[in-house]
Specification:
Layout: E1 11-16, H1 21-32, E2 37-41, H2 44-53, E3 62-66, H3 72-83, E4 88-94, H4 109-137, E5 140-145, H5 158-179, E6 183-189, E7 193-194, H6 197-201, H7 204-209, E8 216-217, H8 218-230, E9 235-237, H9 240-251, H10 254-261
Helix pairs in contact: 1-8, 3-4, 4-5
The structure holds NADP nicotinamide-adenine-dinucleotide phosphate (NAP).
């Protein structure tokens, strides 16, 4: 039986990063379970296409909100609109995020700040804004998309891996805090997934070094994530090979692990 609040005409599932990749697949799965959706990202046309696919013919429907979540002001406006709207956010999916490869000293400070704002600040902010209502109602669900990158430091992707460690750590603690309040918090940790992520992060070196069997598709990743979320799991690692790599990342001593992962993202 699902641990999540059931769909209703007065609630919505807010999904960030729903214009591409894993976010679209999460949206499809929640819609198929009867949840009305609120889809958020920057690219309006993409969001509208997804919303159209998930509306009509007895489907629960989807609203679109265009927002740059790395911009605190724009995020505040979006949150205000939702808190004053007709539907309560009973499911929150913090999926929007991006990565960046390259050594820290070669990357732009502005891009690092933008990443921290999106991958960390927006996730905490949306949880802070919507979890009190969930606790008051005694029901809710928060799915945070972290990454297997969060299980260890990653030279060549240092800031990204650290943002995902943050999301993983915070989600595990929040899971324990909110468990007794009827609110499920799950961290989904995918490994490499074929989406637009690699292009945005400039992962060409990593793609060349990573065997095909390590890659997963977005629909399979989302299915594993939603099933774990419904089961009320604390952490869901997508795929058996990723479970092994996450265990290595968690338990290997850093002196042994860091030289192994050093070349993964190229040596630029
Ligand atoms: N693909 C992988 O290998 C992989 C592995 C582990 C974890 N993940 C995580 O999975 C999540 C989804 O990534 P994906 O693989 O599906 O990548 P993707 O295809 O690049 O999708 C990223 C989504 O985030 C949105 N986004 C980016 N910047 C945004 C901003 N400033 N404001 C609002 N929305 C923004 C994008 O929409 P717009 O561009 O329209 O704004 C897009 O919908 C991310 O958190 C990522 O870190 C991915």
């Amino acid at each position: 039986m699902s641990q999540l609040p059931p769909p209703s005409s007065t609630s919505t599932a807010l999904i960030t990063g729903a214009s591409s990749g894993i976010g679209i697949e999460l949206a499809k799965l929640l819609s198929a379970r009867g949840y009305h959706l609120t889809l958020v990202a920057r690219r309006k046309e993409r969001l509208e296409e997804v919303a159209e696919q998930l509306s009509g013919d007895g489907k629960p429907g989807a609203d679109v909100m265009v927002c740059d979540l790395a911009d605190p002001e724009a995020r505040g406006v979006m949150v205000g609109t939702l808190l004053g709207g007709a539907r309560e956010v009973e499911i929150l999916v913090n999926n929007a995020g991006f990565g960046l490869t390259g050594r820290m000293f070669n990357n732009s400070a502005e891009r690092h700040t933008e990443m921290i704002r999106l991958n960390i600040e927006a996730v905490v902010d949306l949880m802070d804004r919507f979890s009190p209502g969930m606790v008051e109602r005694g029901r809710g669900g928060i799915l945070n998309v972290a990454s297997t990158a969060g299980f260890q430091p990653l030279p060549g992707m240092a800031v990204y891996a650290a943002t995902k460690s943050f999301v993983l750590s915070m989600s595990e603690a929040a899971h324990t805090e909110l468990d007794e309040k009827g609110v499920v918090v799950t961290a989904l940790c995918p490994g490499p997934v074929r989406t637009e992520f690699a292009e945005v992060a400039d992962l060409s070196g990593f793609e060349a070094n990573t065997p095909d069997r390590m890659w997963m598709e977005a629909d399979e990743t989302a299915r594993i994530g939603i099933e774990g979320f419904e089961a009320g799991k604390r952490v869901v690692i997508a795929g058996n090979l990723n479970k092994i790599s996450a265990a290595g990342g968690r338990h290997l001593p850093r002196w042994a692990l860091l030289p192994l992962v050093r070349g993964l993202y190229g040596r630029n």
